[in-house]
Structure formats: structure tokens, C-alpha cells
Design brief:
With about 350 residues, this protein is of the alpha/beta class. It has twelve helices and ten strands. The strands form three sheets. Strands 1, 2, 3, 4, 5 and 6 form a six-stranded mixed beta sheet that branches. A two-stranded antiparallel ribbon has the order 7-10. A two-stranded antiparallel sheet has the order 8-9. Helix 1 packs across helix 4. The longest helix has 26 residues.
Length: about 350
């Protein structure tokens, strides 16, 4: 018997993993005659949300970016109206498969920070649950095989069912506690990513030689981070690196600027080192100074070079050369998008 009669699921999703979990929860809720509402947080105005009926269970699910929830999810939680509802936090992490073993992703500070924010608003945390869905970060690795994707979807579907049975009956599920040590250890990286890393990755995308200017990426971007500059898509610092644009592009024209980052890294090493010796000749032993100078140099160069690249992309010949320097240009690298259930259920 279910303890809850009403559930609201708030989700943010780029390539569809978090949305897939939300749909599964809704499916299991409907089987128990629970009224379930799904809300995409990228499509609502948080200021219009009112306090919830205290009997309603709130579920928040989002991918992990840089060992934390992305900014859009954190901002949503920060602006939630005060309430006394029970909240279950979930995330989708970068799952991989080696043989029959699934390598778990890392949650980092996502649950710790979100739980703290929610508790200050009066909410009660009833669960912290990670799901190791297929990794979608094709900027650094090829897309997973269809066999692996189907395996991970099937595995997480039944995991979701077990979790829902316990939560719907009033229980709590804190499977994230198993990873608490490594999540705490990795937390400094999540801070660096939130302050600087996400801005760097925002400049890793560009529309390559196959772009036909359909503007689908601009229209579908959940955070409105893509603009049209020099008659081509241009990624601003608002980008969350959710990979939705790369996943949905009909021409597979959106690529990762591997060569741009390589050139920026080489120039940062030489120019940054020169600046350190010129400006701080007696303080080179301080790692903090090195870190600051090199990062400022890197971001300044990346911003300038990205704008230069945007201008060069107007030339078809140069655009073709740039595309060939990206691993994501080649067919073997592939793309990732969460698959509908019928694709793995028919093989079960």
C-alpha cells in the first residue's frame, strides 16, 4: 500500500538519462494509483511555484556535472519555496560497463549541498539515490555501444522499480551513503569545476563543417546558452555542458574543439610561465600563485582563440580543417542519446 497519493518529479536532462528515470518513476507510481506530475525545471519559472501540499512527495533528479548538480539544478533548489515535504534526491552519473561489471560514477557534493539547502527551507530528506546510467560525455570518450546502453537501461529500470517500492511505502533509501568517502574526497574538484571548469567546457563546442544552420541547437538549448554570431551557433559561458545539442543535432555537426584546447594548453604553458617569472620572480614556490596565473592565462587565451575560431569557421575550407582535428567529427566516435524502453525490452 502506498503512503503517498501525490508525487511531483522535478528533473533536468540533457541527453535524456534523468528524464528516463523520471518516466520510470511515473510508470511505477501510476501502477499504484499515485498521481504523478513530471516537471522539466528548464521550462518553468521557479518564481511562480507555490508551497506544496505537505502530503506530496517531492523528487528531484538531475545529472552530475563536475561532481555536483549543474548550476540550473542548484539554482532551482535554492529558489524553491519553503515547505515541510519529504524530498528524495536522485542523480544520473556516468556509468560504464567492463564485462558484467558496471563502473559507478561519482556524486561528489551534489547530495550534500542540496540536502543542506533543502533542510534550511524546512524539507525532510527521505532519500539520496544515484543511478549509473550510460555516460554521455562524448567529448572525452566515444559513445558507448548499443549493447552497453541497453544493458544499463535495463539494469536501472529494475533498480528504479525496487527503489520506488520502498519509497512509495514510506521508506527511506540512502544508497548514496555507500560512496560517501570518495564523494567527500572528490569534493575539491567539484568546487573548481563550479568556479572555473564549467566555463572552460562551455567553449569546447562548435558547429563544424556539416552544420546547415537549422538552428535546432539554439532553439532546444535548455539554458539558452547558444547564440548566433557570424551566422553560426556560438556557445556562451551559460552552457551547462549537458550534451543535448550534440545529441540532437540532425547533421551530427556539433563537435568538440580538441585542437583548440590543445593549442590553448600549449600557449598557456609558455605564456603563463613567462608571466610568472616576470611578475613573481621571488614567489614561484607558491603553488597558489602559479594556479591563479595559469588559470587566468588559460581563460583569457581560450576566450580570444574561441572568438578567432568562430570567425575562421565562416570559411568552408578552414572549417573543414578544424572539423578534422576533432575526434567527435569521425563516425566511430558516435553520439549518445537515452533510448526508449522498447529498444531494450524486446531483447530481454
Amino acid at each position: 500500500m502506498s503512503t503517498y497519493k501525490e508525487i511531483t518529479i522535478f528533473y533536468f536532462s540533457g541527453t535524456g538519462n534523468a528524464r528516463r528515470i523520471a518516466l520510470w518513476i511515473s510508470e511505477f507510481a501510476n501502477k499504484k494509483n499515485i498521481d504523478c506530475q513530471l516537471i522539466d525545471i528548464s521550462k518553468i519559472d521557479i518564481r511562480e511555484l507555490e508551497a506544496f501540499n505537505t502530503d506530496r512527495l517531492i523528487i528531484i533528479i538531475s545529472p552530475i556535472h563536475g561532481f555536483n548538480f549543474p548550476k540550473i539544478t542548484i539554482d532551482f533548489i535554492r529558489h524553491l519555496p519553503k515547505g515541510k515535504n519529504k524530498v528524495v534526491l536522485m542523480n544520473t552519473r556516468a556509468g560504464m560497463k567492463i564485462g558484467s561489471f558496471v563502473t559507478p560514477g561519482l556524486t561528489g557534493v551534489a547530495f550534500l549541498l542540496s540536502s543542506l539547502l533543502l533542510k534550511t527551507k524546512g524539507y525532510r530528506i527521505a532519500g539520496q539515490i544515484p543511478f549509473d546510467m550510460p555516460s554521455n560525455w562524448i567529448s572525452i570518450h566515444p559513445a558507448l555501444s548499443q549493447k552497453t546502453i541497453k544493458f544499463l537501461h535495463k539494469r536501472n529500470y529494475y533498480l528504479t522499480e525496487r527503489v520506488c517500492d520502498k519509497i512509495f511505502s514510506g521508506g527511506t533509501v540512502f544508497t548514496a551513503y555507500k560512496d560517501i568517502i570518495q564523494d567527500i574526497l572528490i569534493s575539491p574538484i567539484s568546487l573548481v569545476y563550479y568556479i572555473a571548469g564549467r566555463f572552460a567546457f562551455a567553449k569546447s563546442y562548435y558547429a563544424g563543417n556539416n552544420c546547415d544552420n537549422c538552428e535546432l541547437c539554439i532553439k532546444q538549448c535548455p539554458v539558452k546558452a547558444i547564440e548566433k554570431i557570424s551566422n553560426r551557433p556560438f556557445w556562451t559561458f551559460k552552457c551547462e555542458s549537458c550534451m543535448k545539442c550534440m545529441s540532437n543535432c540532425p547533421q551530427k555537426a556539433i563537435e568538440t574543439a580538441h585542437a583548440l584546447f590543445l593549442v590553448t594548453g600549449i600557449l598557456t604553458t609558455s605564456i603563463g610561465s613567462y608571466l610568472l617569472y616576470k611578475l613573481f620572480p621571488d614567489n614561484l614556490q607558491f603553488l597558489f600563485i602559479k594556479f591563479i596565473v595559469l588559470n587566468i592565462t588559460f581563460f583569457a587565451l581560450l576566450t580570444i582563440l574561441y572568438k578567432i575560431q568562430q570567425l575562421l569557421l565562416k570559411n568552408r575550407f578552414i572549417r573543414k580543417i578544424i572539423s578534422h582535428t576533432s575526434l567527435t567529427y569521425y563516425k566511430f566516435w558516435g553520439r549518445y542519446k537515452s533510448i526508449p524502453d522498447n529498444k531494450w525490452k524486446k531483447d530481454s
